[in-house]
Design brief:
Blueprint: E1 2-6, H1 10-17, E2 24-26, H2 29-34, H3 39-49, E3 55-59, H4 65-76, E4 83-88, H5 91-102, E5 107-112, H6 115-123, E6 128-131, H7 133-136, H8 142-155, E7 161-164, H9 170-178, E8 183-186, H10 188-195, H11 198-215
Parallel strand pairs: 1-2, 1-8, 2-3, 3-4, 4-5, 5-6, 6-7, 7-8
Helix pairs in contact: 4-5, 6-8
The structure holds erythose-4-phosphate.
Erythose-4-phosphate binds next to α7.
Length: about 220
């Protein structure tokens, strides 16, 4: 499974990349505005930091077909490889997914709220599909719908990957891993809550305290 970070905060990216095998970074227009920097500053910063093998997903802002295609070409041109345009699965977007794929551009179909629209994007050649798990859960069983999507792609022999997005708790992560998700884009807060287990920290504290009390040191060897 690919581990992706859903942020444009370079400090967060660096911190998580220092302790996990991070496969890439996703942003969307709102995430970029949250960085407090302009896109002209934040996007090059992230590009400069990422290794060539780490993937970068940047979302188009234009809503019309020509604008989406122009931005998809621009995004793919930012790095020689491992860069994908995130294209929302609107009517204009679906058409752009197909044509961008046919031009050889990397494409992630995003803002997905149903397995059926996701499936159309897969048929149109998207490399990745990003269902908005938490937002889908406002209308039904978002996890089950994503599990169905994974199964639909498998039985139809499509190699498009599903990247779960819009995650709001670790239970959603747990269920999606069990369902065989190919990629998850994690908000840093969720990854941090998976890393920082109070029970683990407490257990280590107790081990060290008993060791120190008996041997007067906090290392294995004197
Ligand atoms: C992916 O990058 C999506 O844009 C993002 O996960 C959406 O998350 P939200 O529903 O928390 O805004």
């Amino acid at each position: 499974m690919e581990l992706i970070i859903d942020t444009a905060d370079l400090d967060e990216i660096k911190k998580l990349d220092a302790l996990l095998n991070v496969d890439g970074v996703t942003t969307n227009p709102t995430i970029i505005t949250r960085s407090g920097k302009t896109p002209e500053v934040v996007i090059p910063e992230i590009i400069e930091y990422l290794r060539p093998d780490q993937k970068l997903f940047i979302q188009v802002v234009a809503e019309d077909y020509d604008g989406i295609m122009e931005e998809a070409r621009y995004i793919n041109g930012l790095r020689p490889e491992n860069t994908y345009a995130k294209i929302p699965v609107t009517r204009e977007g679906l058409k752009a997914v197909r044509d961008a794929h046919n031009e050889g551009l990397g494409v992630l179909a995003t803002a997905i709220f149903s397995p059926e629209s996701a499936f159309l994007a897969a048929l149109n050649g998207a490399d990745y599909l990003a269902p908005y798990v938490n937002r889908m859960s406002n209308y039904g069983d978002g996890i089950q719908q994503v599990a169905d999507l994974i199964e639909m792609l498998a039985v139809q022999d499509l190699d498009t990957k599903v990247m779960a997005a819009s995650l709001h708790n670790t239970n959603q992560v747990h269920e999606l891993i069990l369902a065989g998700i190919q990629a998850i884009t994690f908000p840093p807060a969720i990854l941090n809550s998976m890393i920082d287990q109070p029970g683990t920290v407490g257990a280590v504290h107790d081990f060290t305290a008993s060791w120190e009390k008996n041997y007067g040191r906090t290392t294995l060897r004197a």
